[in-house]
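Why does residue order matter? Because the sequence determines the fold. Keep that principle in mind as you read this record.
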Amino acid sequence: MSLLKKLAGETAIYGTSSILSRLLHFVILTPFLTYYFTKQEYGVVTDLYAWAALLLVIYTYRMETAFFRFGSKESDMERSFSTAAISLLASTAVLTVLFLIFAPEIARWLHYPDRPEYVRWFALIIAFDALAAIPFARLRLENRPIRFAVIKTLNILVNIFFIFFFLKICPWLLEQGYEWAGGLYNSEREIGYVFLSNLLASGSVLLFLAPLLLKAQWTFEAGLWKRMLRYAAPLIVVGVAGIVNQFVGIPLLKELASDDLGYNIAQVGLYGAAAKLAVLMNLFTQAFNYAAEPFFFRNAAREDKSTLYAQVGQGFTLVGCLAFVGIMLYMDVIQYYLGADLRGGLAVVPFLLMAYLFLGLYYNFSIWYKLADRTIIGGYIATAGSVITIGLNVWLIPRYGYLAPGLAALACYSFMAAASYLTGQRYYPIHYPVGRMALYILGAIAAYALSLLLQKSYTPGLAAGLALNTVLLLGYLSFLAVLERQGLRRLVRQLRK
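Structure:
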């Protein structure tokens, strides 16, 4: 139980940074940007960040996970850290130079021919983030979640400051007669300031992590590097497939929704804004993964690891289902964080929330192939998931527009979770309580479905609707209490002690 408490504590700390940063983004930036920009303008932001996520996987080529594997022993940490850091430094320099040289051509391919600076800024953003990957991984492996959390939080604070500086303070200074502000602000290129602010924030993070890099031995072991690369190679496929699964719907939406590019970009904006409302489930999944991956590696030699990992999976499912129910039952209030122009995409939110839940289950079920050095199987599963994602998006986008990426994500992550569980039971058995976990999920879906049914037939006002959904939330909690009465009794006994 103490290990689970430790995992929960580390998840909470990682989650605090993720929650705080995402909450700041959700409470401050999301309403500001969605009220400030139109659907088309916000679509540009969503589109470019989707490409950035894919490129970051290519830039890092999963060396941070290889570092977990080869640096988990204290005696090997410095060697693995230095080798991984030098490898990323060299590859990042080459890739960044190429992007800077070919920025005009890439901008034209993305349908932004007059904005090559966007490509250059993103090349530098990704470079800074890639160089930060190994230091962040070391903080996680060394059980230093607080420092990790502080730096992540500073990142978003710097980002928020510069966005408001460029979009609000600079125009105000110009109105007050401070002509020097005109050198910093151009009203025709306001979208670019979102990216420039991110660049400045990513650069500041790298400065905060510089002490870790400077303390490195800066020795490169070719043999160790080859072993790390062999281990990471299938995970590159997994990483690319993961980004494809999460973001490929955005460029496909821009190309396939209709013959009107402006309409398509507006659809991207609707989807991107709706995805922000699913951020609470996503950040929980992310925080869990931050803490769980090194946790699984550290405890791989324990005799009771199967029981331990099963308890982790069950706990994740329970909390994830509570998050789904809580968000969807109070969507009538949460929706006002988006500008009125961008609330038309709310129908995709439940699909995205459930998709992120299954993504978290996939993280749980897939840990076995990393522990068993069978990462190639993870590559096969992720590739199959990408085929499902791309195929469904191509088929569904012309029919359902912005809904299609959410439906495709749910289908993909459900498949990947199921495939990882079934293959894991063959090669690395972990006896998850899948029946009980399934009941958590079905109960959550039932609570939301009942809410839709009652509100459709009754059509209450906002206050009455919230009261009704509160009753349904309490009902779901009661269902969980009955289902887990034995576990609750054990918890009560422990608290009494």
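Residues 37-230 form one domain.
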